[in-house]
Design brief:
This protein has 778 residues and is an alpha/beta fold. Helices cover 36% and strands 25% of the residues. Bound molecules: zinc ion (ZN) (2 copies).
């Protein structure tokens, strides 16, 4: 039985009185609650009765707007917060259509856990309608074996829940043979968590959904798409990119009309340590330990509390440390009810944790991003964010777990040392009022397109008209695939057709581009510890690297790229390693160009580039001081990345005055490059590791000193393009971030980057500020 929870405001006062409180609360912002707004909506009588049994008496305004649009044959994007009842918006049309004419619905979600959760809810509702209704729900994922799958097709469900991966290799290639009954009657396609379809995965899924639309058209089906999204900056544009439907066909439904209580947000900055000089500068007490203290206090005070943290290991470790602390305080019941939640849990443990949170039996949990998606765990009293999750979208998705009905809720963002964390501590309005980040994917990615076009040729012969699904590069691509023998041309009375004899579906995955992997083997135990993509292995598993895995530390003895193995041995080293590299960029083709808003004479270009990189050595860094303690050379092959980038040249007068000032010009452009990359996730949904940069005092293509920011994936996944489109905004927030950092020399919260291949040398924060100010008029 949950304890009565003391008022949130009283609790905030109490936190300020705790012995460890040293002024960590930078901001206390109260986001007001809402009363519910209902709307009238005609719903099939049988369905209305079944929903009533589930406690749904009336529909919210936002649900009704989506339902009515879909009934009118429009597509819908619902961009509303977690737990706003998005699922009813598609459940009502899907079930009505099934009741009326056995029309089918395809529900696609990125995670099996979400499918399991959704399937249970929908099955319960179908059961309430009774067997005679003809409405049935089935899941079709990697969890079902061959026979179960055959039985599912035999039963011909009206609602099918699947992953994009299964749609890609389990459904589309067999559409004509095994799924004709389903596709012919397909009237509704639900794309849940559409914001998750970004980057490489999102670009691949966008192509799978184009293939679905082609096949549906072949069967004469013309389904409506209902896309559910977190709050992003471009919901319609993104849903259109992912589904391949025109943006004008979508109704945007925002504005959650369900009732909520007020949310008290605390921005909590762990105190600084160090002497204000050298390596200690800008270092702060760990966000994990600060979060653990808050967690233990809140759980003991009767708050059901959920922490979101970065990794599985952290979730496991701090869940058990928190339990230990609670036991020490004599709170044995609370200690027993602390859980860890992440994607690697077994099904049973995962469900147990979800049920515990829902019933209130679990009083506190440490979770990874796994709970960010829509799995229902009920509302909690408090959510702690252990470090800024990198985007406002994720921060608000996670915070949305707090709030029980109309009771007040508490959300605490505990900042880490990174640029974005510290920027928000200084600019809380950017968190609460800033525009949401944009979600991007690139279905025209030249690395992904050929495989998907071959898949499409298996699913249904290709014709010239398919250009509308696969973009303007399609005709050239078909000519190329014909010349390699992958496609066969056939002239028919209806025009040219292309077919293929291959079966490409199984040789490609949706979640990465380069499938080559290196196996990391613990030579003492003779067991494989992990496997890494080829390029990651060169960075993280080169000879001499210290590699962390599941709380163990290893040193890499040897990396054999030919046999794709790395030999590891356990180590007690108290240092970590960081690679050094050389990079060069060749501009292959400028795609487009524009002028900076504040500098008519300065252009920014978006281009196709080749990035060459060679890891030349690595540094050992002392874990305690963060200072370097040695360096070694490495002999590794050069890698190339053909991708997209944007670049800015430094205007002549700006360069002259930067060079005239005291400091390092090269350090100025390098620092500006790091800072802009760190701030990119403020505009576009990505991690800063998804992009890379290069700054050079003289680039042959421009004849000037130039800063490049490139997309880290072959062919580009839309990141550099999105950054190019809003380059003025990006430079502006980068400048604001640099100016608000109190350090003098540059620190991890402004210009240093843990991913730098030049060991953060040279860096000149002051000149970076001068450069950005000149480029933005700031
Ligand atoms: Zn700084
Ligand atoms: Zn660097």
């Amino acid at each position: 039985m949950p304890l009565p929870t003391p008022g949130v405001e009283g609790t905030v006062r109490w936190l300020r009185d705790r012995p460890y409180y040293e002024g960590q609360i930078r901001t206390h912002e109260t986001v007001a609650g809402r009363t519910a707004a209902f709307a009238d909506c005609e719903v099939d009588e049988r369905l209305r009765a079944a929903l009533g049994e589930d406690g749904v008496e009336r529909l919210y305004d936002h649900q009704v707007r989506a339902i009515e649009g879909v009934r009118d044959g429009r597509n819908a994007v619902l961009a509303t917060p977690t737990a706003s009842g998005k699922s009813l918006a598609y459940t009502v049309p899907a079930f009505e259509r099934a009741l009326d004419r056995r029309a089918t619905t395809l529900y696609v979600a990125p995670q099996v856990a979400l499918i399991e959760d959704q399937a249970e809810t929908l099955s319960t509702l179908a059961d309430r309608l009774g067997f005679a209704s003809g409405v049935t729900v089935e899941r079709y994922t990697g969890r079902q074996d061959r026979e179960e799958k055959a039985a599912i097709r035999e039963r011909q469900p009206t609602v099918l829940l699947t992953t994009p991966d299964m749609l890609h290799y389990g459904i589309l290639p067999h559409a004509h043979r095994l799924w004709d009954w389903f596709v012919e009657r397909l009237e509704t396609v639900v794309i849940d968590e559409v914001h998750e379809y970004r980057g490489v995965f999102g670009s691949g899924v966008s192509l799978v959904l184009r293939r679905l639309a082609r096949v549906a058209e072949r069967f004469g089906a013309d389904p409506e798409y209902v896309c559910c999204s977190a709050t992003v900056g471009n919901p319609v544009e993104h849903a259109a990119t992912v589904t391949g439907q025109p943006s004008g066909s979508f109704d945007l439904v925002t504005g959650d009309a369900s009732a909520t209580g007020p949310t008290h947000w605390l921005l909590w900055n762990p105190p600084e340590y160090g002497d204000g000089e050298g390596w200690g500068d800008g270092r702060r007490r760990s966000s994990h330990t600060e979060t653990r203290r808050l967690f233990v206090d809140l759980v003991e005070r009767g708050y059901q509390t959920l922490v979101f943290t970065g990794s599985r290991q952290t979730a496991e470790r701090y869940a058990s440390e928190s339990a230990k602390q609670l036991r020490k305080r004599g709170a044995h019941d609370a200690a027993r009810s602390v859980a860890a939640y992440h994607a690697a849990l077994t099904d049973d443990r995962r469900r147990e944790a979800e049920a515990g949170l829902r019933s209130g039996e679990t009083r506190g949990a440490w979770s990874t991003s796994a709970l960010e998606l829509g799995v229902d765990v009920g509302g909690l009293d408090a959510v702690l964010l252990d470090g800024y999750p990198g985007t406002r979208m994720s921060a608000f998705q996670r915070a949305g777990r707090a709030g029980r009905g109309t009771d007040p809720a508490l959300v605490v963002l505990v900042a880490g040392e990174d640029q974005l964390d510290q920027y928000l501590m200084g600019h809380p309005r950017a968190l609460f009022d800033g525009d949401p980040e944009r979600a991007v994917s690139n279905p025209e990615n030249g690395e992904l397109l050929p495989d998907h076009v071959l898949c499409a040729a298996v699913e249904n012969w290709l014709s010239r008209g398919d250009e509308r699904w696969f973009g303007e590069g399609f005709p050239d691509l078909v000519t190329h695939l014909e010349s390699t023998g992958d496609l066969r041309r056939r002239e028919t009375p209806d025009g040219t057709r292309w077919t293929t004899d291959g079966s490409p579906h199984h040789s490609m995955g949706l979640r990465s581009i380069d499938d080559r992997e290196v196996q990391l083997t613990d030579t003492r135990r003779d067991e494989v510890v992990a496997s890494l993509p080829f390029e990651d292995a060169m960075r993280d598993a080169h000879r001499g690297a210290v590699y962390h895995h599941q709380g163990r530390k290893y040193e890499v003895r040897e990396l054999d790229l030919d046999h794709r193995v790395a030999e590891l041995e356990p180590t007690w080293a108290d240092y970590y390693t960081r690679t050094l590299h050389e990079k060069g960029i060749t501009v292959e083709r400028d795609i487009t160009e524009k002028r900076l808003a504040a500098r008519e004479d300065t252009s920014v270009r978006f281009a196709e580039v080749t990035m060459r990189k060679r890891i030349t050595g690595f540094q050992r860094i002392d874990t305690n001081t963060g200072g370097p303690i040695g360096e070694e050379e490495l002999d590794l092959p050069e890698t190339t990345l053909r991708t997209r980038a944007f670049y800015v040249t430094v205007p002549e007068d700006v360069e002259r005055s930067m060079r005239a000032a005291s400091g390092s010009f090269a350090g100025g452009i390098h620092a500006a490059e790091h800072a802009a990359i760190a701030m990119l996730p403020n505009e576009v949904l990505c991690d800063r590791r998804d992009v890379g940069g290069l700054s050079t005092p003289l680039h042959p293509h421009t004849g000037r000193s130039t800063v490049f920011v490139y997309d880290g994936y072959p062919g580009g996944v839309g990141l550099a393009r999105a950054a190019y489109e809003d380059v003025d905004g990006l430079l502006g927030t980068t400048l604001a971030m640099l100016r608000s950092c109190a350090c003098e020399e540059g620190c991890p919260a402004c210009v240093q980057s843990p991913h730098c291949g030049n060991a953060n040398d040279p860096l000149d924060k002051e000149l970076a500020v001068d450069l950005l100010a000149a480029l933005t008029d700031g």
